[in-house]
């Protein structure tokens, strides 16, 4: 049966009856959660370029935070297969410093794009004024294998997913639902996989490699109004050209007009800049848990606003605890247990309890094989990643993490020295040595100076000065007993994901690969292009608030090397620590290519249905050995 695709063409029309509103482009969109991208853009472009703000953001803050960035010198010539992410960071900043911009938006978007295109999800510039919007396309795509051939399709379950965005969204567009499952012939005139690659290179920016399906359907910002597709509807043979509109979703702070937009969303607020923790009344040492290091990416397309829904969470009945980020279930046949670990960003006790109850439930059910599903896991607490590795591999392996270090730039050295002089400890700072341990497992004392002597390495012809290396001290945070031996033979443990596995998730899967040699499989993604299973693998990330607080707490805000307070609301986050690979201790794991042993395309049946994609994975070597 042939049914034409008619969809998506009717757009909301904005009333200009109110002449005050039409002269203030921000008043036009005030109070709305969904709007046309062009209307949002008119508001954002109404703020003129301001040299004072450029110097504050670029020269006085961001370029000084880059001094702490572990990968700065690597970017001069990124090793294969990551060579595309090569850029001279200082030269790029200097160019942005001298470019003429018409508006504040143009400056910030140029800077945003430059940092995003470094493809390190730990290192991002988020100017809230311009990143509190997400553009939503009512036509998410996926790569599926149909009759043995992989192609790009509009998601088959469009009809179920799009209404989840609410009527404020669907009222702005007319959707003809038979576009669901349509085969995509081209996007913006390009072969669809080529266009997806272009988006991964220029828009998504979280991963050094990019065979993944990135942000086509939900990019940050309001840069584009529509995409033109050539489609063949399901059950048809006719190619139709359709222009699919984006609708912008605003998730910032309320405003009524241009002035209040700027005041509420663009200017620095009480939470923008760091604090001196010595003066903080919130530090009560009896109750305060230790400050915990984070390794994560901020993917505004999923973590903020109204992300396009995904259905990666299993629908099977779960076993063990399921209140947190872990959902566990037993596959039909009762041989294999699956732990879906959606994130490492969870309450410490909850995560550890849920791990124990999942493993206990699997053992009670007589399960002998274990699959860890890490699809769409953007990371979280470094110590929860190490905990899961330790729990699965047993206490007998000893230290469950990587060797780590920070850059020993002159200001970092001063921070450590000053923290020691002030008698600070890990309640105040991530720089004090008691956060870390010597290689023999002994926790360092807060008074140890691990910057002296420093460790000099030459990266791409530049001398890079690092601290001494150290271990994490995650076992101080374990609240459950760790079995001495692995609860499941590690030969019978496998990891699966869709390649979206960043930071702490990347570190966990890299440890499971490098040390435990578990099998890893990646589902989906672009065919004939490698996908690293470990997504973006940095280590601890510091938000702008965190590094600024380190400096203020060490009484060094007046140092000539210290970054200034931001005048605008925003976050410049950076990868602050390196994790060094077990395979080659001279290489950060971020630059060691580690491919999954198995790749599988999604099919119509398995797409977005983890139990099915695990259960139906067929007679290949991975499935035979795991299921
Ligand atoms: C829809 O938008 C209106 C304002 O335009 C708002 O009051 C209402 O809460 C929104 N509805 C939902 C479900 O977000
Ligand atoms: C530029 O921004 C600074 C800091 O917010 C402000 O004081 C100044 O008035 C602005 N300049 C112009 C010309 O608006
Ligand atoms: C930008 O230009 C100003 C003025 O020439 C200069 O003081 C500053 O150091 C430059 N900043 C960067 C990051 O190049
Ligand atoms: C395509 O045809 C199949 C079998 O006739 C039918 O089940 C399915 O609903 C059709 N799909 C669409 C989008 O019309
Ligand atoms: C923003 O608007 C919502 C709903 O219109 C309201 O509940 C909330 O209090 C407002 N927030 C501020 C900061 O004005
Ligand atoms: C964790 O498990 C312990 C012991 O079973 C229980 O007392 C505690 O309430 C649990 N905590 C959470 C957050 O699940
Ligand atoms: C950290 O320092 C505070 C303030 O001096 C002190 O109360 C606390 O006990 C110290 N923490 C540790 C673990 O020594
Ligand atoms: C561990 O190593 C440190 C630094 O070399 C040393 O001071 C400490 O005594 C060692 N601890 C043990 C238990 O050997
Ligand atoms: C943590 O692990 C190290 C070895 O990696 C060990 O020396 C130390 O005693 C452990 N600490 C705790 C509190 O378990």
UniProtKB/TrEMBL annotation:
Keywords: Signal
Signal peptide: 1-17
Flavoprotein as UniProt keyword: no
Top-level taxonomic group: Eukaryota
SUPFAM superfamilies: ClpP/crotonase
Keyword flag Ligase: no
Matching Gene3D superfamilies: 2-enoyl-CoA Hydratase, Chain A, domain 1 (3.90.226.10)
InterPro entries per record: ClpP/crotonase-like_dom_sf, S41A_metabolite_peptidase
Name of the protein: TSPc domain-containing protein
UniProt source species: Mycena sanguinolenta
């Amino acid at each position: 049966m042939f049914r034409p695709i008619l969809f998506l063409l009717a757009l909301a029309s904005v009333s200009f009856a109110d002449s005050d509103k039409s002269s203030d482009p921000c008043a036009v969109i005030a109070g709305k959660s969904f709007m046309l991208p062009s209307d949002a853009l008119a508001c954002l472009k109404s703020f003129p370029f301001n040299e004072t703000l450029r110097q504050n953001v670029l020269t006085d803050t961001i370029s000084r935070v880059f001094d702490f960035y572990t990968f700065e010198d690597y970017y001069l010539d990124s090793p294969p297969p990551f060579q595309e992410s090569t850029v001279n960071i200082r030269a790029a900043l200097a160019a942005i410093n001298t470019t003429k911009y018409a508006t504040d938006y143009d400056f910030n978007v140029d800077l945003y794009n430059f940092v995003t295109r470094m493809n390190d999800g730990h290192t991002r510039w988020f100017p809230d004024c311009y990143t509190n919007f997400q553009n939503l396309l009512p036509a998410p795509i996926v790569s599926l294998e149909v009759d043995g051939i992989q192609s790009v399709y509009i998601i088959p379950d469009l009809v179920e997913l799009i209404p989840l965005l609410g009527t404020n969204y669907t009222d702005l567009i007319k959707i003809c639902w038979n576009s669901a499952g349509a085969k995509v012939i081209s996007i913006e005139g390009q072969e669809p996989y080529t266009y997806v690659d272009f988006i991964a290179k220029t828009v998504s920016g979280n991963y050094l490699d990019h065979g993944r399906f990135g942000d086509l359907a939900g990019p940050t910002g309001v840069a584009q109004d529509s995409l033109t597709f050539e489609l063949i509807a399901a059950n048809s043979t006719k190619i139709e050209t359709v222009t699919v509109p984006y609708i912008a979703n605003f998730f910032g702070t309320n405003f009524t007009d241009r002035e209040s937009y700027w005041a509420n969303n663009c200017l620095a607020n009480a939470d923008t800049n760091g604090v001196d923790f010595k003066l903080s009344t919130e530090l009560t040492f009896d109750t305060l848990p230790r400050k915990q290091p984070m390794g994560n990416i901020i993917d505004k397309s999923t973590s903020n606003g109204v992300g396009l829904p995904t259905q990666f969470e299993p629908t099977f009945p779960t076993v063990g605890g399921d209140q947190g980020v872990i959902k566990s279930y037993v596959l039909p046949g009762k041989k294999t247990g699956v732990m879906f670990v959606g994130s490492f960003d969870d309450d410490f006790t909850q995560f550890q309890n849920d791990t124990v109850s999942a493993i206990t439930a699997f053992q009670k059910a007589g399960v002998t094989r274990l699959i860890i599903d890490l699809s769409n896991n953007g990371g979280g607490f470094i110590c929860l990643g190490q905990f899961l590795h330790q729990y699965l591999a047993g206490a007998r392996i000893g230290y469950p993490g990587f060797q780590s270090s920070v850059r020993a730039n002159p200001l970092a050295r001063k921070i450590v020295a000053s923290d020691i002089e002030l008698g600070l400890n890990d309640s105040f700072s991530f720089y004090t040595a008691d956060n870390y341990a010597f290689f023999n497992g002994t926790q360092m004392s807060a008074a140890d100076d691990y910057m002296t002597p420093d460790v000099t390495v030459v990266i791409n012809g530049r001398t890079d000065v690092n601290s001494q290396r150290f271990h994490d001290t995650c076992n101080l945070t374990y609240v459950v007993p760790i079995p001495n031996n692995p609860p499941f033979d590690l030969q019978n443990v496998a990891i699966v994901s869709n390649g979206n596995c960043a930071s702490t998730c990347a570190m966990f899967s890299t440890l499971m690969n490098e040390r435990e040699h578990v099998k890893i499989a990646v589902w989906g993604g672009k065919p004939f292009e490698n996908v690293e299973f470990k997504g973006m693998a940095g280590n601890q990330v510091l938000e702008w608030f965190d590094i600024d607080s380190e400096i203020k707490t060490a009484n060094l805000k007046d140092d000539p090397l210290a970054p200034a307070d931001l005048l605008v609301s925003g976050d410049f986050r950076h990868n602050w620590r390196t994790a060094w690979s077990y395979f080659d201790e001279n290489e950060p794991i971020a630059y060691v290519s580690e491919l999954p042993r198995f790749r599988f395309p999604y099919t119509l049946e398995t797409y977005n249905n983890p139990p099915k994609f695990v259960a139906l994975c067929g007679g290949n070597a991975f499935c035979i050995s795991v299921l």
